[in-house]
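Q: Hi! First time doing this. I have a protein sequence and I read that you can turn it into a structure. Is that right? Here it is:
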Amino acid sequence: MEPHLRDPGRTAWALPCLLLLALPGVDAQARQGFTLQQPQLTQMVTAGEMLTLSCTTSGIAGPGPVMWLKGWGSGNKTVYNQNNENAFPRVRRAMRESDTDFTIRIVNIQPEDMGTYYCVKFVKGDTGDDEVFLRGNGTEVSVQAKPSPPLVSGPEQRERPGEPVPFTCTTGGFFPDKIEVKWFKNNNPVGAQPPQVKEWKMKTYNMSSTAVLTLQKDDVRSQLICEVKHSTLPAPLHGRYQLSKILRVPPSVEVRAEPSPVEVNKTVTFSCLVREFYPDKVSVSWLENGTEMKVQNVSLPRKLPQGLFELRSQVEVQAMEEKNRSTITCIVVHDAQAPVNSSALLWISNPTQGGLGSGFQMDKEDMLIYIVVGVVCTVLALLVAAILYLIRTKQIKGKSSPSARLHEPEKSSEATTQESDPNNLTYADLNFEKERKSIRRMVEMSQQSEYACIQTNQAPNGDDNLTYADLDMVHLSKAPKRPAPRPEEAGSEYASVQITRK
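A: Yes, that's right. Below is the predicted 3D structure, encoded as structure tokens:
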């Protein structure tokens, strides 16, 4: 039963006087000689610690207990009663046997214990109930509550590198409400939104902070740190989150055939290289032209220095002729994700032909290289042939003496527009050395040669002294029509030749 509080609105100094006048049976001298001291006006304590509230009395006030009340008025709560000490397990008297010292200690103080505490002397009233005789001035108690250890949470599913991922840091049960939060990836600061602080039950507060981080391939060994600072903390609190919990790095898959191509009835080994993946949950299977194969050599994932994994799986295939160009496929399922596959062809060479088979495995880059090399070699061969041809031609020219070169005039649009020669003739003028030689006809020609050699000797006795020239005029340009040349004297050094144009 809570004690009856009379005149709760009056101040503490006025209550003793009113109560003394109202209570018969206590002489005035005794009433005036009783005192109650509650010296502490404020007390601050950290949650979980012990709170000490001091109260002493002196003089005689009549029968009745001393109590401690939290709050005053209709909402008060009894936290200690001298007549029933065992009813309050968290409260202990500092001097249990004393009749004048009513100092109490409250263990494991909590934020809900905040409030004003009064030490009150009660006496028996006319009705037999305990009535307030005298109370202390009250002690206002503030409880500082430390924030709980920060908890960092991430997404429920794993995320790939390059994806922005939100993380949340929460803490609660702290008082006062001022709190500071910082984020770090390893030792590097990470930007975050301002913390959201909300009042919670029992006069405490909760905090939530969010940071968005873009994952990287090498974050397997990285950690995200939430740092919390509060006035109740001698040092900051840290919440940590290993990024490996939510990181997924898909593997790269490559199939190689060694050797390739392979002779008939030989064995070729296909290797499936599964590189740089995380986590290590992976399965490998093989298909030959869509049909599942038995795998005999599957290695366990090997951990790389950066925390990623790699794996090698091998399968052997006998190179029978009917299996030529068969497709061997490696299928990799990583961490229950969609399958990833890679394929290679089985190439069989034909020993009887000494070839590599009809399908040597070659990628586009290798093919381009071979084409470029072939073109370069062909061009070089043609250049060498042209050089040899020119050298041979010069040697042949050097052996012919005397010689005369027919110089082809520059072709122009004027030459092509000239009227055709009615006689359909092309003229060539030849100059010969002055030395007379005996007449001897010697012609060295090809069907399309640009050169004509004329050798002259001493003319024989007779009136007809002629020099002959055989010319192939395929490459000579047409000349404008001109009068027929004047006959020259026998043995002339100048010769004019008219040749019918083909």
